[in-house]
Amino acid sequence: MKLLKPFLIVALVLTLTGCQDALGQERLEGVGLLIEDTINDQGWGTKGYKGLLQVKNRFDTTVFYREEIKSKQQVTEAVTEFEKDGVNLVFGHGKIYASIFQTIKADFPDIHFVSFNGKVSGDGITSIHFDSYAMGYFAGVLSGAMSQSGQVGMIAAFPWQPEVTGFREGVNVYNSEAEATIQFVENWSDTDKALSIMDEMEKIGVDVYYPAGDGYTIPVIKHVKNQGNYAIGFVSNMADLGKQTVLTSTVQHVDLLYVKIAKQFNNGTLESGNRHYDFQDEVISLAPFSDVVPKKLQKKLKQAVSTYKETGKLPAP
To answer: How much is the pTM?
Structure first.
């Protein structure tokens, strides 16, 4: 048997070690988070902060966040500070960050930018999209089925939300006579306007509400509870606001998606561009139903969600 010469053994060991380092290299060094409003809004902002904490715990990495960051100048200043702190993955927790990140990413070549919703292109930037049409659809289905008056209402933030179309098209699945009224706050957190819209809906007999705007969802549901009507929670499970009021909630598991994205980045598999996530990815779900929802209806909706996850097909009217 021939023996390898000592220098060949050393060379072979170095080569194998280098390959192992490349394969097992962890890229995540630090994570930054930008939020338009506050981490204490009990809605979208809080979701982002919890996602950041999940990443910190999962990867034992350093994390930073900045609140009330809305302009390009504020974003640039915050990202510059993040860069000094060793951050190489930045989440912009909202649609406004997509276009801003697009314009500044060339100035920060060692950072990968991640925004929610808006459209992006090029390397080093990813936009995450919750495909929320189906969550709106299921909210519409349940609203129509549970309405006694035949009038249901959606208080949306903006017309471009996919769940708006979903809600409108789902209302008649189990109730062909139900009518949907949809109005827009044109803001994620204008509680006064949302409550004003709700008052107008109450006058026409709306008895099931779907407030689809992070900052005003909780105040609206509290008002619905006082009315003795029904509501469907948005983004988070809001059963704690009233188990006899909140029929279910359309939940976006932002924390799980943050961990998923951080893991992809850490493994070197995070793709640039626009990425979409839905029920099938286990980052959107319906929360447990209230006991006021008939068992038969609960069963039908659970089966409909299961079918959608398996086939992509929604129940037809």
So the answer is: 0.83
